[in-house]
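This section describes the prediction task in plain terms. A model, or a person checking by hand, is given the sequence of a single protein chain and must write out its three-dimensional structure as a string of tokens. No templates, partner chains or ligands are provided. The sample shown here is typical of the held-out split.
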Amino acid sequence: MLQGKRPAAAAIGVGAALVMVAGGTTACGTGDESANPGFQGCQADPVTCNSGERADGGEITWGLDGSWTGWNPNTSAEYTSYTLQITAPYWPTVGHFDQNGEFALNRGLFAEEPRLVNENPMQVEYALEPGANWGDGTAIGVDDFIYNWYARSGSEALCQACTPAAATAAQIASIEEGSAADKIIVTYDDDYSSSEWKYEPILSNPAHIAEAAGYDWKDDPAAMGEAEAHFSKTVPTWSAGPFEVTDAETGDYAVYEPNGDWTGTTEVTLDKVTLRSFDSVDSIITELRQGTIDGANPTSISAENVAQLAAEQEIAFNIAPGPGWGHIDLNTKNEFLSDRALRTAVFQSIDVEELIARTYANVQSDASRKLNHLFRNDDPDFEDHLTATGQGAGDTGLAMSTLEEADYSWDGEGMLLDPEGEKVTLNYRYAEGSDDRQTMADLIAFNLADIGIDVELKPFPVTELGPTLAASDFDIINYGWTSQPVIVSSANQWWGSDSSTNFGQNEDPELDALLASLGSERDPDKAADIANEAVARVIADAYVLPTVDTPVAIMVSEDLVNVRDNWASQQRALYNIAEWGLRAD
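The expected answer:
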């Protein structure tokens, strides 16, 4: 509940990353102005809307519409929207993208923006903020950069049995101190020349904590892997952000109080912030009505939820396009879906426009089908390589023609048989707890039945999203990715053959070559061209079918200020938690 008061102070924010979400549908727009006193200006000025002077002190509770299984978003199983939100108050980042897509440096850790000091090989210098430490007085230093390199390398020679969500550090050649201990030089392999070098994640878990726990991480790859597992299961006793954990139960709640060792220039005014997991948006709205929680920014929202919020004069809310995009993935290692022709026919039979009409359009009348995996439909670099293929068109006739050309047939009951005469059966996985996800599952099953495929619907608890994906325990799955306004790391994470978050296990040497070219192109315009070639290749593989850029909601008590959503950050509203406060009288 809201408590206490304190005078205002200026602020900056921290945090950004790339994650998976369960998916679902939301609305775009706002409720009545009388129901949204804090967010009227968000469309015109999304970076500063709901600003205000902060009172001195206070305690708030923030709701999450899902849960988390561990504390280490380095790992693929824990690289979820909820893990990134729960770790946002203390996690070290280079910076974040704001609501205008502009990059803002994390001044709590870095004295200046990363600087390119050499082009061949590429060398980047990081200047640490004087006094930057892990919340226990231990200075952040070169070993912490090296620890992150090993954890995110994807190399068994550096981190045995590690499963990084993305091997973002795979092309690092060395890390060493520069002219002083607060200057760190990262040197990349000769073939690294990314246009997005400034945004590489170069810090994560603290090296000295791993050493104190008894792990010889620097010299023993097995110990390095064990250290990563330790960070996953251990509630953090450290912090590189404005808050530190003082009490927590994994998957249920975490209590934060100000980190006295934080070197950020923002004065933290809140005395305590509790992040708590809830099983549904309905539960969150009920708690908001009762005043037992103070805000939330769920990953999905229904038309009924919007109506509930509009009726509450004490709740400010806003609904706008968010960071996520929904998609349907196929497991290419499935005995049937290993055939590209079948994958193509499956996608051609799915009617994405109908999916949107029956779900998203209930709350966003102008919701449109997403036609590019990396660029939004209104992006200057957008290209449509999807429509011409018929994928997502719900064209049963086209799908059946694709199958006939590949020697598929149908038995007397209309069931699809593969070229060997085997009956094609598939399962469809999705997170339970959402009427819209259930509707989409039913519609997709009907679409596939039209071409003779028997589909078993297999929902799972939303808390099992990460493990289900990590185990590739699906034939067809519907979920969402959220990402920063970057393309290089996203494309490699989603589609690289050796990426641990390439959950459908697609292996395509031509696509890998495009991704390698994308990662070594320094010119942003040329990188965009290569990215569109990669999108075209993913479509040719019939691997991932995008559905829609998912709008999202934020809802808060009228007494909260400097709290706003951020589509460009997977941490959503928590990207600037240091600025949060209670409205001054």
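For orientation: The mean pLDDT is 90.
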